[in-house]
Design a protein that fits this description.
alpha/beta; eight-stranded parallel barrel; three-stranded antiparallel sheet; 17 helices; binds 3-methyl-2-oxobutanoic acid; binds zinc ion
Length: about 525
């Protein structure tokens, strides 16, 4: 039975790579997006919204690469209700096994009058033309009336009828600004079903933002009102306060399945790893008390709770940590483990690597195993993600070496060697407030780029004194923002790598911004 034939099946539409990537400071390149898309496929999502191809050449390339490589889910691309957007979306996804064009236009007067300086009639015409044009390319077409929850329901219904008449197969109702309340959102959908009976012939979808912390509650209310597709993002990332968190929706439907009677196709054991990969590649940390995937989500602090869980897990736990894949630390390698053991361990983690990539990973594994007694699955994941970053960052600046002096009696001082994108070796030195600050200034001196640090975070990948350090940096170059991450057992080295990657990403973004289309009306 296909999902559509099963009335109890809820489709998971993941928008981590599109709405999620619109979070400030996130700049994923094509290779990083592909890595996330492959993991989303392992997670069993039904649809991956891979990007907004007209927005930049980089986004187009990423969507195209994902379409050509990732098997399983439908690959969707976003397009405003304009012919050039629809053309770009189609050109980017046409090689996918199952492509989808997702086109949108606002139906709220607030947007129509103030943003587009247009009219309701004009919006109807644009919606009709865009869906018809998308349909010339592709059977699977989704239409969204942006800012629907602040729009007139009768007018929105007229626009939806037009989209359905032109062949839209999914109708998505965005709560674009996160303003709705659950009962209100459900009533809005119920009213749309009354006004547009043809909605029963297509998939109704929900897309809720979290400005009032209600994204998941609103999405759930929408499902109970009849929606069978949820648009959501890993770790709840997205525009402003973010989107509904995928892991929360999926685990809500799984944990309370007996009462709700609905199910998804998600492989819940892949949730924790997907969350870590997204957090690592985007540089967006997960808050410790985040539902489902926060590090405290299954931790019990009070003695009474600990006592209860030790006697019987269900006393204080409604889910089993292993059901979301939070047992990843069981896999352990040591410094005597060989190349084959590493390859097998990585394969268990879903990373199929061989040849030169395996050699490089093995070399780094040995370096880490020499410094750390035990290398766990978490370490391996961090290491492989770092390798991906390294590979995809080869076209930017690369940290070759560094020296840093720290002393309470002398001013800290650092020297660095950086390879430029053209292959030239650059050196720089500087004094700073501390050794890390000195390294950052030395990198600026070597590259001649006046990068301004915006955010700097250090985390330990696992517990223990010999844990790998993981750093995340956000910086600005000439007003363009870039983020970068690095891992090492030496936090100065991790910080320096992250800084150089963030600087390269900011320069890429600065240079591509000139090539970007002006996105009036973008979500
Ligand atoms: O929030 C929004 O309205 C969107 C649409 C493009 C679906 O992201
Ligand atoms: Zn959105």
């Amino acid at each position: 039975m296909t999902p559509l034939q099963d009335p109890n099946r809820v489709l998971i539409f993941d928008t981590t790579l599109r709405d999620g990537e619109q979070s400030p400071g996130i700049s994923l390149n094509a290779q990083e997006k592909l890595e996330i898309a492959q993991q989303l496929s392992r997670l069993g999502v039904d649809i991956i919204e891979a990007g907004f191809p007209i927005s930049s050449p980089g986004d187009f390339e990423a969507v195209q690469t994902i379409s050509r490589t990732v098997e399983g889910p439908v690959i969707a691309a976003l397009a405003r209700a304009q012919a050039p957007d629809v053309d770009a979306a189609w050109n980017a996804i046409k090689d996918a096994e199952r492509p989808r064009i997702h086109t949108f236009i606002s139906t709220s007067d607030i947007h129509i009058i103030h943003q587009f300086r247009s009219t309701r009639e004009d919006v109807k015409g644009q919606a009709r033309a865009a869906v018809a044009h998308a349909k010339e390319y592709c059977d699977d077409v989704e239409f969204s009336p942006m800012d629907a929850t602040r729009a007139d329901v009768e007018y929105t219904a007229e626009v939806l009828q037009i989209a359905i008449d032109e062949g839209a197969t999914t109708i998505n109702i965005p709560d674009t600004v996160g303003y709705a309340m659950p009962q209100e959102y459900a009533a809005f959908l119920t009213r749309l079903y009354e006004l547009v009976p043809d909605l029963h012939k297509v998939v109704l979808s929900v897309h809720c933002h979290d400005d009032l912390g209600l994204a998941v509650a609103n999405s759930f209310a929408g499902i109970l009102a009849g929606a069978r597709q949820v648009e959501c993002a890993i770790n709840g990332i997205g525009e402003r306060a973010g989107n509904a968190a995928l892991e929360e929706i999926v685990m809500l439907l799984a944990t309370r399945q007996k009462d709700i009677g609905l199910h998804t196709g998600a492989v819940t054991k892949e949730i924790a790893r997907t969350s870590r990969i997204v957090s690592r590649l985007t540089g967006y940390p997960v808050q410790p008390n985040k539902a489902i995937i926060g590090r405290n989500a299954f931790a019990h602090e009070s003695g009474i709770h600990q006592d209860g869980v030790l006697k019987e897990r269900s006393t204080y736990e409604i889910m089993d940590a292993t059901s979301v894949g939070l047992d990843a630390n069981s896999l352990v390698l040591g410094k005597h483990s060989g190349r084959h053991a590493l390859q097998q361990a990585l394969s268990e983690l879903g990373f199929e690597i061989s040849g030169q990539t395996l050699n490089t990973a093995f070399k780094r594994f040995k370096e880490i195993a020499d410094k750390k007694k035990q290398v766990t699955a978490m370490d391996l994941e961090a290491l492989v993600t770092d390798e991906i970053r390294q590979e995809s960052g080869r076209s930017g600046y690369v940290l070759e070496w560094f020296e840093a002096e720290a002393s309470s009696r002398r001013n800290p001082h650092a020297r660095v060697g950086i390879r430029s994108p053209e292959g030239e070796m650059l050196e720089g030195s500087f004094g700073g407030d501390g050794p890390i600050d000195a390294v950052f200034h030395a990198i600026n001196a070597a590259t001649g780029i006046d990068a301004k640090l915006h955010e700097f975070r250090i985390n330990a990948v696992t517990g223990g004194q010999d844990a790998l350090g993981e750093t995340s940096i956000v910086l600005d170059v000439d007003g363009s923002r870039g983020s970068g991450q690095g891992i090492s057992t030496d936090i100065i080295e991790a910080a320096a790598s992250a800084y150089v990657r963030a600087l390269s990403n900011a320069i890429r973004r600065r240079d591509s911004e000139g090539a970007e289309t002006s996105l009036v009306g973008a979500p």
